[in-house]
Structure formats: C-alpha cells, structure tokens
Amino acid sequence: MIIPLNIVEAFAKNVGFDVCGVTPAGELTDRIKPFNGWINDGMHGEMGYMERNGDKRLDPTLLVPNAKSVVSVLLNYFPGNLPISTKPPKISRYALSVDYHTVIKNMLWQLLDSLRKEFGTINGRAFVDSAPVLERAWAQKSGLGWIGKNSMLINPKIGSYTFLGELIVDVDIETSVNQIPNRCGSCTRCIDACPTGAIVSAGVIDARKCISYLTIEKKSQLTPEEQESLNGWCFGCDICQEVCPWNSKIKVQTLRTILPKKIVLEISDEELPSISEDKFVKVFTDTPVSRANYAKFIETCQSIGV
Ligand code: SF4
Ligand code: SF4
Fold it and tell me: Which of 71, 83, 134, 236 fits a 20 to 30 Å CA distance from 174?
C-alpha cells in the first residue's frame, strides 16, 4: 500500500501545520561532504554533539528500523516585531513562547495517530530538533522550500520564521514531486547584514561567529571581542531573517499554543539585565530561554550595556 500524499497533507493541516511534504527515507548522500567539511573545519565550535551520530544524521534508516518515508512539516511562528525582539537586550522571536519542542512533537504525534487510525499499524518516530536529523535538508527534499544563503529553510508563502518537524515512518507514502528551486538569486542582504560575518558562504554559517551560538550554545566564557559583537542580542539573533525579503509579507501567527507568553512580553528592557534568578525562572519557565544558564544570561545582558 502507498498512502496518498493528499491525505497526509490534509491530516497535517487539521493538526495545525502550515505545510507538509514527503520524501523517501534514504541516505542524504549529497550532504555528507558539506556536513563533514563543516565539522572538520571546526565551525560547530563547542557543540561537540554535532560530531556524534554523524551516520544517523545522514541516514534515517539508522534511526527508525525499516524507515520508508520522511514526513516534513512547517509551522509559521512569526509573532510580529515586538519590543522584546527589537530593542536591546533582544530575545529571538522563536524563544518567546512555550518551548516549540513540546508543541511540535505533540502535533506530530497527533498526525501519526490520525494516520494510524486511517491506515492501521505504522511504526515511526517524531523528531523536533531533538535527535541527529538534518531537518532543513529533509524539508528541502520534501518540497517545503529552499535553504537560503542565511542557511534557513525558506518557504515562498510563509517565509523562514518556521518550526520544522519530521515523522520518520516505516510505510510508503506518495512522495512530493516538486522541489522548490533556490530563489535567493543575486540577493545578499543576509550576508551584508550579519554583523559578525558568520555567513561565510551561501548557506554556510561559521557557528563560532554567530550570535545565536554565542548567546545560547557556547558554554565557555565569551571573550571581550565576542561580547562586543552581540549587537544587542542576549538570546539568539534574528538579523539574517529580519532582512530577508521573503519574510517581508508574512502573516503573524495566531495559533494559541505558540503565541508569545504574556509574562515574557511584560518584562521591560530595563528589568532584563538585573532580573533575579527567581523571576527569571518564573518568566521563562517552559520557554527555550529557560535552557540558558541564568548566570550566562545575565552576563550577556549586562555585556550589551543596556
Ligand atoms: S543569526 Fe545573526 S549572527 Fe548568526 S548568521 Fe544570522 S545574522 Fe549572523
Ligand atoms: S536575505 Fe536574500 S540571500 Fe539571504 S536568504 Fe533571504 S533571499 Fe536569500
């Protein structure tokens, strides 16, 4: 049996996803060389976990026995241009709501449940930025968009402020036939706007220079030069998405489960650099910011000099 694509797309819409596509599960052969080159050049910085499970990252059949299909989904999370993401100390837009890992994973399980009710036993796993899966590569192969020069997956209708997720399942599903060609053209706005020069070539980010990495992932102390490079961001960085023309006309998301939390929006830019640990926990609990070390967060806010 081959499950029709239009049924999977309809179920994904019912669950709340904006876009869904399917590609056969198999090795991402064209990604092996660039990915290994990126690691060998040390561009992953202190993210040692990127070096592990390289084989699983590139071959989903090693993650799900007998994997046949990869279902990729996108959900727009654009919350608009809110003061907390536009006035230092700035927090990246994706981090203002309840942690997307939980929300998207629940939605993926609902999608798998719908498929099981309709088609019987299906074994599979849901992934949201949580296992060694090259999400953008799968989404691109599933026809959901292209990987822009800023390395983000860009969908022509909903832009790049999107959460990605995948179901890897052991059943055949009709494949999305049309991939979307890269539409960056001669544009270089993201490269020109990146304040640290982290976009070293089209689609390649040197994480060691990227403000998102410096404010979230880097565990060791920031150097004075790194502190000076933060451009007002204390958690994440949206600059290369803010300038992208494909994000200029996108809709503000209204899905209740991923709206920015009111308590987060109420924090003032004056209060943030001196927020107490108790309040930090209260305000950011269950948001991506809660994964930051409190001491590092405060130090980063203070180094921005607000
Ligand atoms: S997130 Fe910020 S620092 Fe990183 S590549 Fe984009 S603009 Fe540059
Ligand atoms: S800013 Fe321009 S070059 Fe960069 S991702 Fe968007 S369209 Fe592509």
Answer: 134
The answer to whether the CB of 301 falls within 8 A of the CB of 295 is no
Beta bridge mates, 199: 205
CA distance 9 to 120: 18
Encode pLDDT of 6-15 as tens digits.
999 999 999 9
Q: Which residues are catalytic?
A: 129
- CA separation for the pair 212, 236 (Å, rounded): 4
CA–centroid distance, residue 155 to ligand 2 (Å): 12
Residue-level pLDDT at 291: 83
Domain range summary for the chain, segments of one domain joined by +: 2-173
**Cβ–Cβ under 8 Å, residues 38 and 57:** no
Quick check: pTM over 0.90? Answer: yes
- The pLDDT of residue 130 is 67
Ligand nearest to the CA of 156: 2
3-state secondary structure 161-206: CEEEEEEEECCEECCCCCCCCCCCCCCCHHHHHCCCCCEEECCEEC
Going from the Cα of 221 to the center of ligand 1, the distance in angstroms, rounded, reads: 19
